Amino acid sequence: MQLAEIIRKKSAQYLDEITAIRRHIHMHPELSFKEHETSAFVKTRLEEYGVTCKTVAGTGLLATITGKAGKSGRCIALRAELDALPVTEENNLPWKSSVPGVMHACGHDVHASCLIGAARIIKELEDEFAGTVHLLFQPGEETLPGGAKKLLEEKVFGNNQPSAIIAQHVLPELGAGETGIRQGVYMASGDEIYITVSGKGGHGATPDKTVDTVAAMSHVVVALQQVSSRFAPPHIPTVLSFGKFIANGATNVIPGEVIIEGTFRTMDEKWRAEAHEIINRIAVNIATGLGASCSVEIRKGYPVLYNDPGMTSLMCSFMKEYLGSGKVKDLQIRMTTEDFAWFANQYPAVFYRLGTGMPDRLLHSPEFDIDERIMLEGAGLPAWLALSFLLQ
Fold it and tell me: Which of 77, 124, 228, 235 has the most beta carbons within 10 angstroms of its beta carbon?
């Protein structure tokens, strides 16, 4: 029997169990770097399958499976995440979140359970390959600077460095069991912008005796739209958006301070650094020109996510062999961010998508959900990619 067929059969055999694992993780979500129960649960399941693992980055896990079919220097890493989001679930399901205000709204429960399934399959096939598979269950993907950065700082892989690292992430826009992949730049960098304008508060009926912070900040917000429309090179996708504007005065009170918070995203690291300087200059100059003072804090987030072209091409060919070419789609760039980009800065990396089959249940929404049948591909495909890489 061919290896692909063996993996497909094992995925089907374990689908119900993988689904049960996903539902358990979904019911017990934990926020970034607080994934203590999730990590303990995953560790228990892995050990039941004979897969040894160790704790990393506080609440993460690194499992390692070494093939027994001879010695090989080849090594590949597969990564999934453990953390949930501060979202209140609105689905009415028996396995809905049992934690108020916390939900697996980004599919990390799916990623983790599928990687557990892949680990079981790979372990059962350890006599068929040589080399090493690292299975990384990462904490804190949803919080800056990201668990990936922390893991790299800890030198998580030690002396057994991977030649490639792969991540699977669900995507509602793709059909159930379809995959999507893109070579080169795929996802944006992401930075958090915090701007404070300070002035002289006072009565709204006597604005001449105040330094109007609300008016000043309003001008700042409008002026900053020039960053993407006039300063950004036209060929570089750029987004600057503000989602929070706090002017805690009253109908007749001009506050002494106004705060805005937003996000800056782009696809080029050189332009990213230039844009930070422009944002600071525009905000300070506009506020100062209106008599106020201004402070700008830019918290650098994840870098641009870059899929190694050679490794992406190789993995794409493996995916088509396992799924059929009709289920492997070309992706467009996305202005969302991913801390897997830290790994992609250090290793030949491939970040690909798995369709959820529910296009109206969007990521990060209270209604996010999946067609659980996709975990058939979700568990089998990573196992196939890892073993195909080691056996080539």
Answer: 77
